[in-house]
Amino acid sequence: MLRCVASSDALQVRFWGTRGSTCASGPEFVEFGSHTPCVEVRCGERLFILDAGTGLSALGAELAQNAPDKIDILLSHLHLDHISGLPFFKPALLAKERVIRTYCGHLDGESAMEPLGRLFAPPLFPVRLGQLPARFEHHGFRAGEPITFDDGTRIETHPLNHPGGATGFRLSHRGRSICYISDVEHSDPWPDPDLAAFVRDTDLMIFDGMFFDAEYSYCRGWGHSTWQKGVELAQQSGVKALAIFHLYPGHNDATLKAAEAEMQRIMPTAFMARERQFLSFAPADETVADRAQAAKVPAV
Ligand SMILES: [Zn+2]
Ligand SMILES: [Zn+2]
């Protein structure tokens, strides 16, 4: 089901940071990585960045000179682990004609400009975002409203249960979709029917499964869920593949691999997200143009 395709019109996902709350580091944290949340999504050639945790610096180094002139960063919310990569995003340093747009949905329609301006300023940080060569634009919306971009692209959003609020995103392209559901704490009863409707039948759900059910009684109210609740939501919503994300920095590779094996006995297409992991979904809505092109290819 998950396969690499050469098509430049695929829906593609790469994880640049999969840890939640803070980084993990050391020889026992190599396989799943160390950076905090950042996910690159390509809808064909179109780039979206989900969250700006420390993984954003690694993505920026990879993009470097090849970054597009307009870059859209969808922020689930503004907790530090989701924004701390912003000043270290190399494309912001390389071109003054570049525009970096942030989208924030949990501040009653206000943008992230004011809170980001408070954080990235002396004495907390030496350089203001406005002093970087690229121009930042900050857009606010209300989680639950769709975001429509100037090229006509539309992304669906959903409010999430998290201290201070957070926003889930659903990105669709050529008959495929992915849902980004971080950070979220499950409700009782579960699955929440509105969230289940939001993620229904998606090809990939990226879900905050920071804790294990056995740990959850110690972490109740912290705003995070468990891989077991992610599987329940996925299986009851027709989700095709599940990436457990926002991994607890105290869970080392051995712990996560053991949990992943246990999870895959229940849902074989579920996995723990790994830093730099890449997934590609071929278009599912073959167009008239595709069929015409295919007709020109001789059978062999
Ligand atoms: Zn977080
Ligand atoms: Zn958070």
Automatic annotation (TrEMBL):
Q: Which species expresses this protein natively?
A: Microvirga arsenatis
Record-linked SUPFAM superfamilies: Metallo-hydrolase/oxidoreductase (SSF56281)
Which SMART domains is this protein grouped with? Answer: Lactamase_B
Protein name per the record:
MBL fold metallo-hydrolase
Checking PANTHER family in the record gives: ZINC PHOSPHODIESTERASE ELAC PROTEIN 1 (PTHR46018)
- One Pfam family for this entry, by name? Lactamase_B_2
For this protein, the record's Gene3D superfamilies field holds: Ribonuclease Z/Hydroxyacylglutathione hydrolase-like
Q: Indicate the segments forming the Metallo-beta-lactamase domain, all copies.
A: 35-251
